[in-house]
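Appendix B, record 7
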Amino acid sequence: MNTFTLILKYLAVFVLAIFVGSFSMMGLHLLSGVMWPEFSLNEMPANPQALEQFMSAMPLGPMLAVLVSHWGGTVLGAITAVLASGRRQVWPGVVMGAWFTIGGIANNALLPAPFWLEAVDLVGYIPLAYLVSRPLVKAAA
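Structure tokens (predicted):
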């Protein structure tokens, strides 16, 4: 396979993985909104001060659901990247972990959340992407 074809292949792989991971993340967020309707995405205020109050009033359950949503989307994106790339290497999954870490940084910059939630959220993306990618690569060997 020549270099240009390889670049196009991996570009398609990452677009697919970003699509799968992002939509999975949004689906998990919507599911958590069913479990805690008072803290769903539809109920979030647009006013920055009201948004900060809303986030600080959130109980532990919805906060953990945020982590599960973010990490779940990352895991599914990493799995998609590894499988779509040919299952030979871990790096496509780790790239997805890095991609969603950048998204997590942007999310933390835009939405006020407790520091512990922001820190735990950012720490999980790359390690989880690596942990799910590794067995897929070993299974292909």
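Remarks on this record: Residues 3-35 form the longest helix (33 residues). The chain has a mean pLDDT of 90.
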